[in-house]
Amino acid sequence: MLVDDAWVERTARRPEAEDGLRRETLLLPWLADRLPLAVPRPVVVGEAPLTVRHALVPGSALGTPTPDHARRLGAFVRALHDVPLADAVARGLPDAATTSGWRRRAFARFEAEVAPRLPDDRRLRAALDRLREVSPTAVVHGDLRAEHVLVVDGVLSGVIDWGDARAGDPAKDLEWLLLDTGLADAVIDAYGEDLTARAHDWRAVGPCYAVVHGLDTGDDALVAAALDALRAAS
């Protein structure tokens, strides 16, 4: 909720949402001092239900990125991934053991419930095998895409929506930048490492999350659309 056109206020409507909001109040203000673009700095302003508030990060969602945007975002992601993981975990970031468990359980479902629905599951299974061996080595945003990158007058101003931040694979944060912007060279130059191959593996696996969510919620249309995306990528 926007308050006085200057503050973003969020309330935990369900008990299970409280942990995530509290984690953000510990992690994000600390993280903000270490990054070259603005991020929210939430603080607790109420209890029962838990309510947090942060100053509005100015800007609107990034449209078509330019080479300068790509370079700056590559540098931003590099700075994020260079943040000491242990220090972030001490401030509530889900650690490598936790996120490895999440990945292991998700991949097991993908193999059991998604792969058999494909006419050719070899690409998916190969990507799962490769990603299963990748350790969660960095602080990652977890959902970096154009909608979460803000600009003011064409200049990058901030990155929002940190609810999926965790210890993770750096390539996942680079998926959109490397595969969708058409500016991979500028991103790689600024980031200092080419993780395109692993980004393609994450792209191959990505629709599986929608498939199992659709199965869990009875959303047949979502399942069908996600399976179509997987077939197209095979």
Characterization of this structure:
- This protein is an alpha+beta fold.
- The protein folds into two domains: 1-54, no CATH class; 61-233, Aminoglycoside phosphotransferase (APH), C-terminal lobe (Aminoglycoside 3'-phosphotransferase, Chain: A, domain 2).
- The chain is built from ten helices and nine strands.
- It has helices spanning 18-32, 67-82, 85-89, 96-114, 122-132, 170-179, 184-191, 196-205, 207-217, 220-233, and strands at residues 2-3, 7-11, 43-46, 51-55, 60-61, 138-140, 149-152, 155-159, 166-168.
- Helix 2 (67-82) packs antiparallel against helix 6 (170-179), helix 5 packs across helix 8 (196-205) and helix 9 (207-217) packs antiparallel against helix 10.
- The longest helix has 19 residues, at 96-114.
- The relative contact order is 0.15.
- The mean pLDDT is 95.
- Residues 6-196 form the Aminoglycoside phosphotransferase domain.
- This is Aminoglycoside phosphotransferase domain-containing protein.
- It comes from Actinomycetospora straminea.
- InterPro entries: AGP_Transferase (IPR051678), Aminoglycoside_PTrfase (IPR002575), Kinase-like_dom_sf (IPR011009).
